Amino acid sequence: xxxxxxxxxxxxxxxxxxxxxxxxxxxxxxxxxxxxxxxxxxxxxxxxxxxxxxxxxxxxxxxxxxxxxxxxxxxxxxxxxxxxxxxxxxxxxxxxxxxxxxxxxxxxxxxxxxxxxxxxxxxxxxxxxxxxxxxxxxxxxxxxxxxxxxxxxxxxxxxxxxxxxxxxxxxxxxxxxxxxxxxxxxx
Length: 187
Known about the structure:
It is built from six helices and five strands. The chain is an alpha+beta fold.
């Protein structure tokens, strides 16, 4: 049996919540699973991923493969770094040091991102209080699209000719001979 670490949706409509589960790869997404090892809430702003580290490491050691999304979630928490160091045979002290460095760098990065968003909000001027004046002037037409007097006469003539054509073809009262005469006069 091939075991996968993957997401299983348990949230309600338009409010997704996923459990990270160890499941047989042949079972459906929301179907049968072996064990729940974590939870992921994508709409919650921070701390949206929780894992049972011991059980995740157990399943990884026993050959469970994570899906791409679960692997990214494991990377965000530093568990994938821990797993990769364990596979290489690093000692426990080195693993804990590397994971602590990762967590510190991650915290600094999140703090920096938060500071920049706050700074952008402060710099943004508040202009929404005063409604803008409604523009009553017609927008300027580019010179290429402005019609010249020659073009307007052509279009008027084209319209008249089109009307004459529709009159000859659409009036059922005229006989075939009258329609032929009308078309000969135009030519």
